[in-house]
Amino acid sequence: MLLADLHLPPNDGGSGGDPLGTAFRRFCEGPARAAQRVFILGDLFEVWVGDDAGLVEHAEDVAAIRRLVDSGVEVYFQHGNRDFIVGAAFARATGLRLLPDLAVFEIAGQPCLLAHGDLFCTDDAAYQRWRRFSRNRLAQWIYNRLPLSRRRRIAGGLRSDSHKQRKPEAIMDVNETTIRETFLRYAVPRLIHGHTHRPADHHYQIEGRHCERIVLADWRPDRMEWLRADACGLHRETLATP
């Protein structure tokens, strides 16, 4: 199973004001138990200011993933643009495995490249510069040693700037040349990613090969979707209403 872009807010202690978090925990306790592997391709959380705070603020989500792993399901996590600071303490607490920005796995009988997807939005030059800086190990080392209050202000400022910006729709999507170059570089027939919040299946001819790009859906209260892989192929599924 593959999913992305849940953008979970901090847990509310069961007050009922967190429908996405409740749904994710239902997913972990229900449909995900039937999987051999679950891939979370970034932006599981709306914001993550560090493992020290995140493990407390998302204690229920962390516990749900831990129970899923303890049940025998392998869980993998790629960083998104909202939760790129997720670290080793989170991995230890949940038992999941952290993946690099680009990772190849055999899925539904074919080698498949997995990514969050922001790497492919190369028309947004300003974001790509920020991305390179924010993923720098020294920058992350410094950030993680700032007081928690300072980290919250930085994260809040970044989110505010993101909401204020009105970028053209075109640069918010992937760059098709970058996609084609990625297919050539990795020589895989399939790419699965999230990030753009534009779920769709795209088809390409790359040097005589048929290639497929599958964009995962973002989660909303009225649409909580994942991709299930089996011997027959890939299937989009949604969480049933309780």
Automatic annotation (TrEMBL):
Q: What EC number(s) does the entry state?
A: 3.6.1.54
Pathway terms, separated by semicolons:
Glycolipid biosynthesis; lipid IV(A) biosynthesis; lipid IV(A) from (3R)-3-hydroxytetradecanoyl-[acyl-carrier-protein] and UDP-N-acetyl-alpha-D-glucosamine: step 4/6
| Binding-site residues for Mn(2+) 1, renumbered to this chain | D5, H7, D43, H197
Gene Ontology cellular-component terms for this entry are: cytoplasm; extrinsic component of plasma membrane
Highest taxon above the source species: Bacteria
CDD domains in UniProt? MPP_YbbF-LpxH
Its cofactor is: Mn(2+)
The record's cofactor note says: Binds 2 Mn(2+) ions per subunit in a binuclear metal center.
User: Which residues are substrate-binding?
Assistant: N81, R82, D124, S162, K164, K167, H195
Key words, A-Z: Cell inner membrane, Cell membrane, Hydrolase, Lipid A biosynthesis, Lipid biosynthesis, Lipid metabolism, Manganese, Membrane, Metal-binding
Q: Please verify whether the record's keywords include Isomerase.
A: no
Q: Which GO terms describe its biological process?
A: lipid A biosynthetic process
From the UniProt record, list the reaction(s) this protein catalyses: UDP-2-N,3-O-bis[(3R)-3-hydroxytetradecanoyl]-alpha-D-glucosamine + H2O = 2-N,3-O-bis[(3R)-3-hydroxytetradecanoyl]-alpha-D-glucosaminyl 1-phosphate + UMP + 2 H(+)
Q: Does the keyword Manganese apply?
A: yes
Q: How does it sit in the membrane?
A: Peripheral membrane protein
Q: Could you give a GO molecular-function term held by this entry?
A: manganese ion binding
> What's this chain's function?
Hydrolyzes the pyrophosphate bond of UDP-2,3-diacylglucosamine to yield 2,3-diacylglucosamine 1-phosphate (lipid X) and UMP by catalyzing the attack of water at the alpha-P atom. Involved in the biosynthesis of lipid A, a phosphorylated glycolipid that anchors the lipopolysaccharide to the outer membrane of the cell.
Family, as annotated:
Belongs to the LpxH family.
NCBIfam families given in the database record: lipid_A_lpxH, PRK05340.1
Name-wise, this protein is UDP-2,3-diacylglucosamine hydrolase
Gene source species: Stagnimonas aquatica
Which classification does the entry list for the species? Bacteria, Pseudomonadati, Pseudomonadota, Gammaproteobacteria, Nevskiales
Gene that this sequence comes from: lpxH
